[in-house]
Amino acid sequence: FLALKIANVNWQSKLNKAAHHTSDYSSTEAILRRGQAFNITLKLQTTVQSGDNFTFIASTGPSPAESQQTKAIFNLSEEGASGWSATQEPSEPDCMNFTIFSPANAVIGRYKLKLQIVSGNKVSSTLLGQFVLLFNPWCPNDDVYMANEKERQEYVLNDSGIIFQGLEKYIQQEAWNYGQFEEDILDISLAILDRSLNHRQDPAVDVSNRNNPIYVTRVISAMVNSNDEKGVVEGKWNGKYCSGTNPLQWSGSVTILRKWYRGRYKPVRYGQCWVFAGVMCTVLRSLGIPTRVITNFNSAHDRNINLSIDKYIDISGKTLHLTEDSVWNFHVWNESWFIRRDLGSFYDGWQVLDATPQERSKGIYQCGPASTRAIKEGDVNLDYDSSFVFAAVNADYVTWLHYSKKRKERIYSDTRKIGKFISTKAVGTNFRVDVTANYKYPEAGSLKERQVYKKALKLLGVRSTGKRTKITRPRRRSAVARRQNMTQPAQKPSISGKLILDASPVIGQDILLTLVLRNLISDFKTIKVKLSASAILYTRKPKAEILQLSRSIKLGSEEVKEISFKISYSQYKNSLMGDRKILVTALCETKQGASLLVEKDIVLQDPFLSIKVLGPTVVHKAVNVQVTFTNPLSEMVTDCVLRAEGSGLLKEQLRINVARMAPMESSTVQFEIIPYKSGTRQLQVDLVCIHFSDIKGFVMLDVAPAQ
């Protein structure tokens, strides 16, 4: 008996990768998508006997089993029970060509492929090699199928993007390097699945569930934060970041994922919401699930999910921490595209996932997938966590003036409507697209919008008595009571007010503000104004007090007065080291009672930074990049670092020390890049300095293929 000897196995890497849209992965391994044929060629040392029977065995996970769909046994030209099949194609005399098909619902992950040959009564078995199988948005039978090619290019294949941040009235673009095809990133994404709690508890069952995007995305949403299972990123929203990296200083996921992997799975410090969402987008795109990053402005974090956010201020206008609820300037999460076999086809499409650790879901810090259709229709009882996301975009905002434990008064504040300008990057460009209509019906207060809100309250068990069915601790009057029977409404005061910025505020300069007060009635009145300014995080949590003033203003009949004041650089410079956000509040009280709260969020603008690429960008050809920036301060600045990164342009993050910059001085730094991938590429530059928060910039480059 001569066992069939195989000289080598050709995995037809180039051909298969092109057909499977996986050419961008920097790995030499065979990377394939499910539900689609691939080819392999065996070069033989011996000849095949006519009666030889060929059987293929594809297996994945630590304990492959046919019953778990983690092992498939299939013969030539007949489809096995597993949905896998193989056919032999014509070939050269000393070769064999095979086409192998995987089913569109196969488990994803790293597989071994074996060939078993039965010749007479002898059996020989050969390992042909390994391959990685991914989700396939190009395959109509895959749960993640996306019909539009431009959308697939964006949501699966684009390795850079834009994450929107800032304020609803001052939306900023931040560049992010997803880098899902960079070296090791796919391996790291698979390692993330293998480190999950589910995998540790029962590896065989965990792997067998990896055919389902609902399961995979939920596991990743838990693993991207470090809260339960030593996941990738550790969150921090207070204090200093000395023992790690300030979340504002990351520009992409690659550095973070490699740091976690190379550091033996020690959580990377520190992240805030856009970091969690950026990393999750990288991991899910690398596994083949269409994913995008979403920003919700004025996002509610409603701890007890009663659809009401209460804010307390004391008589000087300072925010008090009497509640766990909060409204963030913005919050960033993800959406992934797949069908919902568990809920029914009405709920197919974009699904919300949130890896930021805010609340536990079934005991673990994870969130989603929640169907955007379910959120829009108020179906807050549907899996997973749709009530939490519904509250983030729909809760009510109520302000209370707190005199003492026994006495508080609901005051009038212009309700910043929750859930505004829900944004994502456009397909094929860096423009902002507003997707608010995917989350809620138009016009707050319209009949349809009210019906959905009432349905959600009912499903959540928030009743007019203020009792919650799920929550045992005593509640204040519920949102329904507030909306229906306003026995103690915030009396609309007889004055109106507005805070106006006199000029765009720039770091290093004084901030000039005007409070405009208008008497709405013909009575003469005296108004006590208490102004306060604090440095805040994007979660609107105060970090440090900057300023407190009080003034007494006399207003005649229907008179308008302007009160100007400034926050000088010396007052805010020490509080704005890491972030550049200030919250200014003016509490205006009249003798007649009714109080008015006027608030203004301020984001100091980035000083100027310009990036010039000095020549054409071509694969494997070096080109120089020139970066010019200015020290915005009227003092000497030392120890700055210029960092640059970009997938397809720089294999690792580049760091250049900028020793010193005189006050207001401009500086130019030059460095070289050698692009290694063609197409549209994003180069990001970040000037990091302890004296002021980062100055970031980016430029899009069209890299030509090698000539």
UniProtKB/TrEMBL annotation:
Domain Transglutaminase-like: 265-357
One Pfam family in the UniProt entry: Transglut_N
Enzyme Commission numbers on file: 2.3.2.13
The UniProt record lists the keyword Cytoplasm: no
Active site (catalytic residues): C273, H331, D354
Record keyword Repressor present: no
InterPro entries, A to Z: Ig-like_fold, Ig_E-set, Papain-like_cys_pep_sf, Transglutaminase, Transglutaminase-like, Transglutaminase-like_sf, Transglutaminase_animal, Transglutaminase_AS
Molecular function per GO: metal ion binding; protein-glutamine gamma-glutamyltransferase activity
Cofactor binding summary note: Binds 1 Ca(2+) ion per subunit.
Catalytic activity: L-glutaminyl-[protein] + L-lysyl-[protein] = [protein]-L-lysyl-N(6)-5-L-glutamyl-[protein] + NH4(+)
GO CC annotation terms, alphabetical: cytoplasm
UniProtKB keywords: Acyltransferase, Calcium, Metal-binding, Transferase
Reported cofactor(s): Ca(2+)
Binding site for Ca(2+): N394, D396, E443, E449
Catalytic class of the enzyme: transferase
Membership in a protein family: Belongs to the transglutaminase superfamily. Transglutaminase family.
Protein name per its UniProtKB record: protein-glutamine gamma-glutamyltransferase
Native organism: Pelecanoides urinatrix (Common diving petrel)
Organism classification: Eukaryota, Metazoa, Chordata, Craniata, Vertebrata
